[in-house]
Design goal:
This protein is mainly α. It has a single domain, classed as Four Helix Bundle (Hemerythrin (Met), subunit A). The chain contains seven helices and two strands, in the order H-H-H-H-H-E-E-H-H. The protein has a two-stranded antiparallel sheet with strand order 1-2. Helix 1 runs antiparallel to helix 3 and helix 1 runs parallel beside helix 6. InterPro entries: DinB/YfiT-like, DUF1993.
Length: 179
């Protein structure tokens, strides 16, 4: 069996975003059940110098776009606000929208773009600029590790606030494993 660029990215990102979607829904339910304002979750940070829960979800959506190497590839900066990011339901909606975008992609949209040069500037003027010789280097060295960083920080913020989550939610919150 040959592993393709599509196999390496689209199902992996889709599953991760489905799990994150379920995590956001659990956070919303937890806020309601415990009389907590959603702002407590939305504004949560692991450390004062780290970004908020909202940013972590935004970064997951933007990095999912950035890790989708199609002919129309372009860096999707995390400084771009998502529709509805002022509520947990809005964040869940943004995740669902990104999941639908991924599910609409076909193998031919992605496969064969491994050699695509990936130039990015994380935040023009303040972030760092990178020029990856090909898409595989971009995905392996920056795109996917960055996605997983923000994905796990979002999970950690929910745990820190008391949302009842476990490792199984991180791995299978959006559905069972496909054996």
């Amino acid at each position: 069996m040959t592993l393709s660029l599509y196999d390496m990215t689209i199902p992996v990102l889709t599953r991760a975003l489905k799990n994150t979607h379920a995590l956001v829904q659990k956070a919303e339910s937890w806020c309601k059940e415990n009389g907590k304002p959603e702002s407590e979750m939305l504004e949560a940070r692991l450390s004062p110098d780290m970004n908020t829960f909202v940013f972590q979800i935004r970064a997951c959506c933007m990095l999912s776009r950035s890790c989708t190497l199609t002919d129309a590839w372009g860096w999707a900066p995390s400084s771009t606000a998502l529709d509805g990011e002022d509520s947990l339901a809005g964040l869940a909606g943004a995740l669902q929208k990104e999941i639908q975008r991924l599910e609409a992609l076909k193998r031919d949209d992605v496969d064969g773009r491994e050699g695509k040069r990936c130039h990015l500037w994380t935040s023009e003027g303040v972030g760092f600029e990178a020029d990856f010789a090909d898409g595989i280097k971009f995905l392996n060295q920056f795109g996917l590790p960055n996605f997983w960083f923000h994905n796990s920080i979002a999970y950690g913020l929910c745990r820190m606030k008391g949302v009842p989550l476990g490792k199984v939610d991180f791995l299978m919150g959006g559905g069972p494993l496909d054996f």
